[in-house]
Amino acid sequence: MPIYRYNAYKAGGAAKAGTIEADTPREARLRLKNEGLFAKEIVPVEDIPAGSSRWRARKGVPQPELALATRRLATLLASSVPVYEAIAALHEQERPGPLRDIFGRLKERIKEGSGLAKALGAESHVFSDSYIAMVAAGEASGALEKVLDRLADFLEDQATIRSRVATALAYPMLMTVVGSGVMLFLLAFVVPKIVMVFEQNRATLPLITIILLVVSHFMQKWWWTLVIAACAAAIGFDRMRGKPGFRRWLDHFWLKLPLVGSLLRKLALARFGRVLSLLLSSGVPVIRALEIAGEVVANRAFREALDKVKADIIEGGSPFFFSGAKPAVPPAPDPHDRRRRARGRAGADAEPGRQRL
């Protein structure tokens, strides 16, 4: 159930603020009125500016559950079940939780006459722009069940990739934490005892050993400065990354790194290519597809490159010729581009390139 934040007044004139759960803002006002509060302002939690509550957690639906729900909806629609009845059936079958509440709200909106895409648009905190745009294209083309089936495949692939990445990173992260802990323990407790042996023997120490002893002494006496410095760096980075100029510089910096930059390029291109392929094959116009697919790319250098591509297409250029898109996207002129567009298979033929990446 959605959460709303309100500012209200009591009968005596005293102000009160808080949060309340309700299906709609109107229901939230009625609940507050029953409690003797007169609402001055009611704002959905998802619509509150990020700066006012940056650290709040937002309830969502896990991607595997969303993929399964999308697959079930596609199966029902493929069996000639009307959209409203399919959503109502999913609402009844779903166990209590966020997804069941979402189906309930979708059912009510469709019952009032909204299309599925419009109803999904009110749940933008769960359904992405690409999801909603593909559903809208499926409704317009009369192939909604096929579009939903493709969406389910895409969500399942994304969930699998995330799981593999998390599994692959778990061991290196564990080793980094354990190794750092062991190193700090040695510098703080073991090295000082060894120093006593060197002092008793009055031995001449090499430069590397002297540096190690200085670091150990610093860790013993001034360890708290490292904690303060780490906290200050984390806070400073968190504030700086909200500034467009710093974020743009950081995104370009990542792409210039020898190995990491190449990996980031391939991952971003693969994700962008998959979403773009799905959108084009679902009937979404090229310009709109580029806008939506660009939103899945977090790197601003890539977004700038995609803006150049979109400008070229508006001027009559080819969507498969990334002119002027360096350094984020390497130029890839395609000799078969005209044939693809003539056959209307731009989306289908974009998918093999994404799979190779």
Strand content: 5-15%
Q: How many H/I helical runs?
A: 14
Main structural class: mainly alpha
Spatially, the strands of the biggest sheet line up as 2-1-3
**Inertia-based shape:** extended
Number of distinct beta strands? 3
What would you give as the CATH superfamily of the domain at 63-156? Answer: Type II secretion system (T2SS), domain F
**Spans with pLDDT under 50 lasting ≥5 residues?**
47-58, 323-327, 331-344
Order of secondary-structure elements: EEHEHHHHHHHHHHHHH
Mean pLDDT: 76
What is the name of the CATH architecture of the domain at 63-156? Up-down Bundle
Distance between the termini: 40 Å
CATH class membership of the domain at 63-156? Mainly Alpha
CATH topology name of the domain at 63-156, in short, is: Receptor-associated Protein
Describe the sheet with the most strands: 3 strands, antiparallel
Kindly provide the radius of gyration, computed on alpha-carbon positions and rounded to a whole number of angstroms: 28 Å
How much helicity do the residues have?
55-70%
